[in-house]
Specification:
This protein has two domains: 11-166, Rossmann fold (3-Layer(aba) Sandwich); 221-258, no CATH class. It contains ten helices and eight strands. The chain has helices at 26-38, 46-57, 69-91, 101-105, 108-118, 137-142, 150-159, 205-217, 221-240, 246-257; strands spanning 11-16, 42-45, 94-99, 123-127, 145-147, 174-175, 178-180, 187-189. Helix 3 packs parallel to helix 5. It is extended and about 90 Å long. The model is unreliable at 267-272 (pLDDT under 50). The structure holds zinc ion.
Length: 272
Amino acid sequence: MLKHPLYPNGNIYLSGGMQFAQGLGAGWRQLCSERLKDLGFFPLDIAELDIAYSEAHGHLYRFLSDDELLQRKSNIRKHFIETDINLIRNDSDALIVLYDESVRLGAGTTSEIHEAFMHDIPVFLINSFKELNQVPGWMQAETTMIFNEWDALYKYFAELPPAILKRDVYGNRRSGMHYLCSLCGTVEEKHKTHYVSKVSPLYCKSCVELVKATHETHYDRYRFFLDYFEKTSVQEWLNSRPQPTSEELFAAIRARKAPIKVKGKSKGKKTK
Ligand SMILES: [Zn+2]
């Protein structure tokens, strides 16, 4: 995990549109980086890094035409997807996401949010649209908190207990006796003892009740899907078989009623 001696509260990856954003989305990242540094967080500004790389080693795919799709795919796989995902998975304690039109046009931010979610890395999203429902439900579910304006986000970060976004030795996001809830982002105090194993994801008391109700009041959707496929595939298989005629069915019924012949009990001559 990347560490900065001046910013001990955690590494925050700044995720948002680049390909379709003005100036690669460098503007908001710069402002956000300054505010985060004031609060003791280390910003991972991917736009700044991308510009620095291009200056040192040139562009990676912009010069490639549509006819060079395979080379373009290969370059993006290696130098964008692999690199950015590694930075999230290995070196980020949380993500701040600016969700705007440029994100909708691209695919990177959505994938980064998903990657963070899959590794239990908190996602704090700024919704630049007026309504909550303009953020897709799937994406809403993968966030820890959604804000409508930057000041509210900075206030939240300023009030977090020191370094609570970082994992402790057991893998929990903890500061002293305080733990961060993965579902609602509130900080909950635990009394007496710490968790001595990883709790994943970690929920506050009210979210535990909520998650319990979610699991227990609805039939498991994945289980339902498997049952559904099993039932429909058996039915499909049965339908694909030649259907017996009524004469064949009667013959089968008659055969069932016939006395059962037992082998080896005939009165015929035994042969040696
Ligand atoms: Zn909670």
